[in-house]
Specification:
167 residues; Cytochrome Bc1 Complex, Chain D, domain 2; mainly alpha; 9 helices; single chain; 62% helix; binds heme C; two-stranded parallel ribbon
């Protein structure tokens, strides 16, 4: 009987690991949509996700000095970055998640005025979002919203990173 258990245990362990990797990549994908396009995006995705996921980054709001300080801290903690990657990452983070950038809003429940405060989201698109959400009852994910608005990915991504779909 014992040999079966010996065979079974590694199999069980592998299943658990595969399962949790799947869950992690699912939420990482949704979080990656909260990174706007721009130079630095790929480096953040690659270098800043080995110890924690992106949530801690996309919810942070910092000025230039604070992002510089944060990146230094992360390097001290062991983040692998080439020296020439530091400045683009810092410029990218301060533009995307600067101290004056509002927190992400829930596109399914936000009031018109809240949506209008989202950078790069103009009044016309806000009106279309409100119309589409009352027709469909809301959006589950970014791609649903993009299709409802019939927008090109390039234009959509300029504001979509500050929208969320649940709380
Ligand atoms: C080697 C592991 C590691 C890597 C890689 C890493 N971090 Fe962190 N990070 C941490 C740890 C550990 C904490 C928690 C520190 C704490 O509790 O204050 C943290 C916390 C943070 C925080 C929240 C605290 C704060 O300063 O506001 C932010 C933002 C952050 N990291 C950004 C980044 C960015 C941007 C990168 C990529 C340049 C990155 N991290 C890469 C280890 C890492």
């Amino acid at each position: 009987m014992h040999y079966r258990l010996v065979l079974l245990l590694p199999l069980l362990a592998m299943t658990v690991v595969a399962g949790s990797a799947q869950i992690r990549s699912g939420s990482d994908e949704a979080l990656a949509e909260m990174l706007p396009p721009g130079p630095g995006r790929e480096t953040v995705k690659e270098s800043c996700t080995t110890c924690h996921n992106l949530k801690i980054i996309v919810t942070a709001r910092k000025n230039r000095a604070e992002w510089d300080q944060c990146i230094n801290d992360m390097i001290q903690r062991g983040t692998a970055l080439f020296p020439e990657e530091i400045e683009p990452i810092s410029a990218y983070l301060v533009k995307a998640f600067g101290a004056d950038v509002p927190a992400a809003v829930n596109v399914n429940t936000a009031r018109r005025e809240e949506l209008q405060k989202v950078p790069n989201l103009n009044a016309e698109v806000v009106a279309r979002i409100i119309e589409e959400r009352s027709k469909s009852g809301g959006f589950e994910k970014a791609e649903d919203l993009r299709q409802a608005l019939k927008m090109e990915k390039e234009n959509f991504e300029k504001f979509a990173y500050l929208l969320k779909y649940s709380n």
